[in-house]
Specification:
mainly alpha, two-stranded antiparallel ribbon, 4 strands
Length: 243
């Protein structure tokens, strides 16, 4: 439309110049009007040719894009048709689906569960070494330090190798304090800040470090099984197209 408006405007201008040419009085005026008209006609012709070429290129590009879109649409329709036929003609969908579910169930109940348990245990043990077990200090703003002592206390309470009950285990690490409190008699208090830090450090460097290495090796072994499980599941999935 813009091109058509431009052609209309230029044509009207040329007609106006030709009209001025015919109305010109002197020979010089007629020659000037004729020259202006010829120049305008030449410009119109040249510009029209350029615009026509651009329009032709755009139409060609649009046709190519439309052709590509049609081809892509046809390809997608063919793929959908093939998938539909595969669903209709598959002779083992129920069997393969059952095998796939069994494979996933065995992994989730067996090594899949085991690897999650081991990873969680490893995360707990690795976090122990990062806990702040420094001695707590009283400041005007409140106690400072020892933010991880309660976590250590909870962990020690579960260490059966250090006693038959939680009190015995805490006592083994200096976190249980007994004192005489008349008239109540002997009072037993849990004191996280009483942690025997040398013994705790030795425990981290010994049994904990050894278990961390064992867990890492176990995770590496289980991750290989995880890769094999995923590969087997992928192969079964390739055979089975769920409806």
């Amino acid at each position: 439309r813009a091109y058509e408006r431009w052609v209309h405007t230029e044509t009207a201008r040329i007609k106006k110049v030709r009209k001025l040419q015919s109305a010109a009085g002197t020979s010089a005026e007629r020659e000037a009007a004729s020259s202006a008209a010829q120049k305008a006609e030449a410009t119109l012709t040249t510009r029209s040719a350029e615009i026509a070429e651009i329009i032709s290129k755009l139409e060609t590009e649009r046709a190519e894009l439309q052709s590509a879109a049609d081809a892509a649409r046809d390809e997608n329709e063919k793929r959908q048709t093939a998938v539909a036929k595969l669903r209709e003609k598959s002779i083992l969908p129920a069997y393969v689906a059952d095998r796939l579910q069994q494979c996933k169930r065995r992994w989730a109940d067996g090594d899949g569960h085991r690897i999650e348990v081991v990873r969680q245990r490893l995360a707990v043990l690795e976090s122990l070494g990062r806990l702040d077990v420094s001695e707590r200090r009283s400041t005007p703003g409140g106690p400072v330090g020892g933010e991880g002592l309660e976590v250590v206390q909870s962990f020690i309470e579960g260490l059966i190798e250090f006693g038959p009950d939680s009190n015995a285990r805490l006592r083994a690490f200096g976190m249980l304090h007994e004192s005489e409190r008349p008239p109540y008699g002997m009072i037993v208090e849990v004191t996280p800040d009483g942690l025997n830090r040398a013994k705790w450090s030795a425990y981290l460097a010994g049994p904990v470090a050894a278990e961390i290495q064992t867990l890492r090796a176990e995770i590496a072994r289980l991750e290989k099984l995880e890769v094999a499980h995923n590969s087997a599941s992928a192969k079964l999935t390739d055979f089975y197209v769920p409806t």
